[in-house]
Each structure stands twice: as C-alpha cells, then as structure tokens.
Amino acid sequence: MARSSRESAIRRPLTYLLGVDSNIRVLRVLSLHGGMLAASEIVRQSRLVQESVRKALIDLVSLGIVSPSGTGRSRLYRLNTENYFFATLSHLFKAENDRFSEILGCVRQCSSGLPIFSLFYYGSVARGEDRPDSDFDIGAIVETNDLASVIERLRQALISVSETYAFTPNVVGMDFADVGRLENSADPWWISVKSEAIVLSGNRPEDAIQVAGGCHG
Question: Quick one: which of 57, 72, 154, 187 has the fewest CB in 10 Å?
Fold first, then answer.
C-alpha cells in the first residue's frame, strides 16, 4: 500500500496540530484550563501516559501554539495567545465542551414535569470511554403505574434532540420492584450502574433500594 504524501507544515499546519490524538488532548486540556499547567497535571487531566504528553508538548511548542515557562520540574505550559490559531482553537474546544453540556440540559428538559424518581446516565459515556457508534445510556426509575408512559414520552422527546446533536439515546426504565430484584440478585449490570451513574435529576439510583425494600415489606 502506498504511503500518503507528506503535507506542507506551512500550508497545512492543522495536520500537525490536530492530526495526532495526544496533541488534541493536550490542546484541549490547556484550552479549557485557560492558564499555566504542569506536565503532570496535563497527564492527569488528559488521561494520557507521561511519554505521550511529553512528545505532544515538544511538538506543540515547536509549532508555536504552546508556550513553556520555567525549567525542570517547575516547567509550566499554556496556550500561546499570540499564535494565529489560538482564538479559533479556543472557540472550537469551547464549542465541543458546550455541546455536551447542552445535551445534558436537553435530556433534563425532556424529562421536566415527568414523575421520575431518578434520572441518570451510565455506561461508556459516564466512564468517558464511548466511541462514535456508542449509545448514550440513560436510566430512569419510575413508579410502576407511570413507567410505560413516562419512558415512551421521554424517548419521543429525545428524538429531535438526538438528531440535532448527533447521538443515539438508549433509555432504560425501571420501577422499584425491578430495583429490588436487581439488588437482591446482585445483578452485574445493576452493580455497574450504581458505581458509575451520573445523576441528571432526582435521586441517585441506589436510593431506590430503600423504597424497593418498603414495597416488599
């Protein structure tokens, strides 16, 4: 297979800035932080290994988009506000960050007024491990009599939102009896939900266990 031809760094600098995963993740951390950061903190926030961050910083400094300050272990890094691409990249990462916040806000709005004990998301999105083809897993705990209608209304409300923001919602509904059965059987899916769920509104999902116990009492 023939190799792709090299691109000009002068004509196509974005290939060098954004063409490597570690470069993008380091740029994102620095952009959203807005100030100076040590390499160790960039490692923590980007979830990259130290060597990847080191190489990315070398590249980004050489391209002039990142400015270093200090020496040795006291060396800090920030985006170079004088660089031609600074404003554009900052707006791009802000828009990326805002998009997810808007998605969460829209999910909350779609559930507004519905009798939901706990609304949360879990799975790969909650863990930050989702891929382009991953579902956005949303859980809702609802009283038995309302369960079917609430989940259907939530799913319908999310159709236009998911089209606008290009994601696939997967809404899973449970009543308190379901929670009780899952808890009593130590269901692996339920165990993972309890550990990774991020609440959008109402209570944490495990708070339903006590209610479920009352239902069986």
Answer: 72
